[in-house]
Amino acid sequence: MANPTYSIPGTAVAPATAAVPPALAPMAAARTVGEVLAQSQVMAVIDELDRDLIGLAPVKARIRDIAALLVIAKLREQLGMAAAKPSLHMCFSGNPGTGKTTVAMRMAQILHRLGYVRKGHVVSVTRDDLVGQYIGHTAPKTKEVLKKAMGGVLFIDEAYYLYRPENERDYGQEAIEILLQVMENQRDDLVVILAGYKDRMDTFFQSNPGMSSRIAHHLDFPDYSAPELLQIADRMLGDGSYRFGDGAREVFDQYLRRRIAQPHFANARSVRNALDRMRLRQASRLFADRDRPLTRDDLSTIEASDILASRVFDMPAANTQPPSA
Q: Which string of DSSP letters, residue by residue, matches 116-182?
């Protein structure tokens, strides 16, 4: 007996996890790449991606390649040339904190501006949002998520957790089957991006060839280098109206080089967590001097001492124990 076909109507639903960008005017007939770019304003999104994300050169280059493919496909369509709509489902593989969610949001904007999705929103989910805990629970959960994502992008983080072959009573396979059918039958109205660690995603695709065959674009997100992470820290501090004091930036560079070598390092996410703890130490330092008037410099400056208090500096550089601060 053939599996049933699931059709998810694109009706109005609750707001998605990412805001829907404003709709653009319908694209007029274009004959040049420049005309398509001018009408769609897609280069503004690509330039924003270049400006906002440090590093990730191979990812940015691949995004530009995909945008070029979509622009040329749009020109072919407007000239009446027979061509199948490009397959747009993707896999973003890499370690945590390498910008996968941010790039997914920019990709949704590019797809929307070029007319490949109706809304351009992103619905970000994990296994728990798709898989139920008892018989008959998974299909409604998965279809509800798909309904919310229609017209935009469904971003499934740590997608390999959907497949648990060691548990015969697991319902993840049911969610995968529904996803596969919708990815094939309604690919004109939904783009699915699977994300997670590269080795686990490779294993997932080997175990699920049907899913692998539907993924047209694989983007590998490299880890950030220490200098790139230092630039990210500068930007995060600046966004919060903070700055490094004298010598503090050099100390934070030492912190990063030690922390990268330790387990559970999550790139930009770990940088953000480290800065949060340093702001906490700065606040405690200022709080202790209750009678001194505080200046803008006092309130905005992270001193070297706020960084050196981290337990990372109490451990040998090659220590394998994860730090708690």
A: SSSS--EEEE-HHHH--SSTTTHHHHHHHHHHHHTTSEEEEETGGGG--TT-TT--HHHHHHHHHHH
